[in-house]
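Okay, any thoughts on this one?
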Amino acid sequence: MPTDLPNLLTLSRIAAIPLLVGLMFLRTPVGDILACAVFSAAALTDYFDGKIARERGSFTAFGRMLDPIADKLLVGAALMLLAGMDRLSPLGLLPAIVILLREILVSGLREYLAGIKIGLPVTRLAKWKTGFQMGSIGTIVAGNSGASAIMLDFLPVSWLGEAGLWVAAALTLVTGWDYMTAGMRHAAAEDGARAAREGNRAG
């Protein structure tokens, strides 16, 4: 049910996006640190919704459908805000592009595989990727201005965030390739089965 706690946590990730946008549009140190807090809290729900669902055995079709959508909406919105507000350096923009393209790739693969009733399980490496990705984006959202709001302006926060984004992008390439090869393998098997059926009919 959509009202189950894990599903409510998933929905909260989507609900957090307008608040994140509004806080970042303030363009103030306090706004940046609050935006980081909102993003971080939303990112944590990705861990807790799955944990609670496993503990309660309350997996639902609604949750399986919405969970990856909520993740992609949150990450996509944050990266577009950072890019649009010039909060990413030219070098920082490159891993952001890689991450967004990978999300589109995996979404397309999931849609295709769902059509032939095959799931695309989340790997352990993909979970590490998500951790680095969420942590680095949250750090960049806070930025140097957010750090100054809590008297940590001596830390190169934006630089640290972009370094983490490069790590996330590297893991993104590895996991994206794994998903792509899995999709191609299933596509080849489906084409082979179709060719065999057509050959049998022709015979």
